[in-house]
Design goal:
single chain; alpha/beta; UDP-N-acetylmuramoylalanine-D-glutamate ligase activity; UDP-N-acetylmuramoyl-L-alanine:D-glutamate ligase; globular; ATP binding; 18 helices; nucleotide-binding; Protein-Tyrosine Phosphatase, Chain A; ATP-binding; Mur_ligase_C_dom_sf
Length: about 450
């Protein structure tokens, strides 16, 4: 494509939109940034750009005259594909891409792409470190925090890109074709955006829709949705399983993690030779092994990287021990399945902080997971009442309501006894009370560590 002939509307002025605009400017396209928030200031939007020369900014209403003059729209993942202005652009016959498609088309090199409801960030970070310990030029991008568009222009044929891809980003791919793809699991999430589990599943599985028959997709054999969907796939499937032997794939045999390629079985590592806790992290490690071997990394490099790898921030992250009470930050637990994994990883009686933005999901399975682990539930946010009603139906009544995260931490400190754990694992998104889950987790750590100073 001759980008110098293209007039592109970039929808959204956040991190994704700015990354897309910067990339489009580098390849010579004419760019208009559109944001429906008319309270923004044009100058503030332009000041985010590397090169703001000749970039036009439209805030508030998007006129038909603008739609009629553009060749393409790049849609930020935070904007729904059925938003009214998006439907108008689509009806006008204008191609709609996302940032992932844009970066893929412009970028070069090999690509491993990882999606799933939970475990994406840990697996992507681990695969990124494995690649960096073997290849010379590695970019870790996508939903993990660094937009793919920020690295695509400088990539070469020798670049290896490891991308964490969300369902929102997959809605707007067209030719996106990873050398290795992975879907770690699929459980209910973002149904306020995708409406049905069938739609959510189809979007997640579209990560592999353009792959050739010889290009692998790594799947979790213990996920019933993935096992069923596998029959629809035409590319090569590499399974991983924490419960049974799979071949080809990665499996757990006692404490040993084994890779089978259909011809031979190779010992990779053990569950004791890692700092990551919980069976869900064993599965993340197995997925990373399958991806890395199929990206041609030697097993000894993989083994050594796993041994040294540290947990990513905000995912069952150790914070402090105060009066023999251990505080864990699992702010990345933004849905019920992720929070269940964190609860299962606890080895002490646990005071659980939960609640937040309502994504229209059920909390029944989450409440059932409390078992004898959760001794007290501290709630905050939009979903507090809904969660309380649900856990009461399941026989759990030790509930404390709070108005802020600071109050929640204070209540935990009052109620915790030596030998307990305090776990922030909200089972909900952070929106409404916080900018993102990182801010929520950082504030939790700040409040906890402030107690050490008293």
């Amino acid at each position: 494509m001759d980008w110098k002939t293209q007039k592109v509307l970039v929808a959204g002025s956040g991190k994704s939109g700015i990354g897309a605009t910067d990339l489009l400017k580098k390849v010579g396209a004419e760019v208009i940034i559109y944001d429906g928030n008319d309270k923004l200031k044009e100058e503030d939007v332009l000041n985010k750009l590397e090169n703001k020369e000749d970039v036009k900014v439209i805030l508030g209403e998007l006129e038909d005259s603008v739609i009629n003059e553009i060749d393409m729209m790049v849609l930020s993942p935070g904007i729904a594909i059925d938003a009214p202005f998006v439907l108008r652009v689509k009806e006008a016959g204008v191609p709609i891409w996302g940032e992932i498609e844009l970066a893929y088309v412009i970028g070069k090199g090999k690509l491993a792409a990882i999606t799933g409801t939970n475990g994406k960030t840990t697996t992507t970070a681990l695969v990124g470190e494995i690649m960096a310990n073997y290849y010379d030029k590695v970019d870790v991008v996508g939903n993990i925090g660094n937009p793919y568009t920020t690295t695509a222009f400088d990539s070469t044929d020798d670049t290896v890109t490891v991308a964490e891809i969300s369902s929102f980003q997959l809605e707007t791919i067209h030719t996106f074709k990873p050398d290795v793809s992975a879907v770690l699991n699929i459980t209910p999430d973002h149904l306020n955006r995708h409406y049905t589990m069938e739609c959510y599943t189809d979007v997640k599985m579209s990560i592999a829709k353009n792959q050739d028959s010889n290009q692998p997709i790594v799947l979790n054999y213990e996920d019933p949705i993935l096992r069923e969907y596998a029959g629809k796939l035409t590319n090569r499937i590499i399974w991983f399983s924490s419960k049974q032997k799979v071949n080809p794939g990665v499996y757990l045999e006692g404490k040993n993690i084994i890779y089978a390629d259909g011809k031979k079985e190779t010992f990779v590592t053990t569950t004791e030779d890692t700092t990551l806790v919980g069976i869900h992290n064993v599965e993340n490690i197995m997925a990373a092994i399958a991806i890395s071997i199929n990206m041609d990394v030697p097993v000894d490099i993989i083994r050594e990287t796993i041994r040294k790898f540290k947990a990513v921030p905000h995912r069952i992250e150790y914070v402090e021990t105060i009066n023999d009470v251990i505080y864990y930050n699992d702010s990345k637990g933004t849905n019920t399945d992720a929070s269940i994994k964190a609860i299962e990883a606890m080895s002490r009686p646990t005071i659980l902080i939960a609640g937040g933005y309502d994504k229209k999901v059920s909390f029944d399975d989450w409440a059932e997971a409390f078992g004898d682990k959760v001794k007290c539930l501290v709630l905050l946010g939009q979903t507090a009442e809904q969660i309380a009603d649900t856990v009461k139906k399941h026989g759990f009544t030790n509930i404390i309501f709070t108005e802020s995260l600071k109050e929640a931490v204070d209540e935990c400190a009052k109620n915790a006894k030596p030998g307990d754990a305090v776990l922030l694992s909200p089972a909900c998104a952070s929106w409404g009370m916080f900018d993102n889950y990182e801010q929520r987790g950082d504030m939790f750590k700040e409040y906890v560590r402030a107690m050490c100073e008293k």
